[in-house]
Design a protein that fits this description.
Elements lengths: L1 E2 L2 H21 L6 E7 L3 H17 L2 E7 L5 H13 L5 E4 L9 H7 L11 H8 L8 H12 L8 E5 L6 H9 L7 E5 L6 H6 L3 E4 L17 E4 L3 E4 L7 E4 L4 H4 L5 E2 L6 H17 L7
Parallel strand pairs: 1-11, 2-3, 2-4, 5-6, 5-7, 7-8, 8-11
Antiparallel strand pairs: 9-10
Helix pairs in contact: 1-10, 2-10, 6-7, 6-10
The chain binds guanine (GUN).
Length: about 290
Amino acid sequence: MQLIDGKATAAAIKAEIAEEVKNIVAGGGKQPHLAAVLVGHDGGSETYVRNKVIACEQCGFKSTLIRYEDNVTEEELLGCVDRLNRDEDVDGFIVQLPLPAHIDEQKIIEAIDYRKDVDGFHPINVGRMAIGLPCFISATPLGILTLLRRYDIRTSGKKCVILGRSNIVGKPMAQLMMQKQYGDSTVTVCHSRSKTLKEECREADIIIAAIGQPDFVTADMVKEGAVVIDVGTTRVPDASRKSGFRLNGDVKFDEVAPKCSFITPVPGGVGPMTICSLMKNTLAAGKKEYYRQ
Ligand code: GUN
């Protein structure tokens, strides 16, 4: 069994990005600039956004954090998106999700200029991704593809089972694993209503678990030699930690790991790769790699 080290891979990629940024700036080019909009004080979102700002520093990017209280109106937020769309110094920006219930999340996403949508959530990017055109690919699926590639894990023709059908992970992951230029796998998507979920998993060469239920994938669901990618990051109470919680994956790691050829840990697997992929997208935005503005 080989552990897939997302933390080390992300650090290596961020160092590569920093080197490229140094060369761009030395050559008189523009320093990439990522803006992040954070609404409210949700603990998880605060941590994600803080880590994104730190990653920008590590990559040599400029970053701007824009904060609003929970009671921000949809209009105010749309105004902010509009300003960021028109700000020529900002190459890409994200609005951290989830947003408070009184704000229409989809309306905000669709207001973002797709050429600055480094999250890859805008329907134009989602659609272009689905038909294999150059676009911003959402960060978690892109991070997983990068890990599979860096660890030289063969996916072509393999049976890949994806657990979960979210817009952020399950759906784009299925699209990408299916496509010839990315995973080139045979893909099955299972979710909370799937009757044959366990049977599908048992036949899978690759399992990508993004169902959001701690310890959901158990040893009896995994074939000997399978590759298991754990996207779960549920906060579970843990009195022994200073923070009062720990992150728990969707996979029962201790019993599943011995059966795997490769497995990602939680934390230190997919998580660091998600932020690193956002940095990759921001660099591409700065270089106008996919779209002219
Ligand atoms: N909330 C959870 N994951 C993400 C992400 O990748 N981007 C944004 N904007 N919000 C999130």
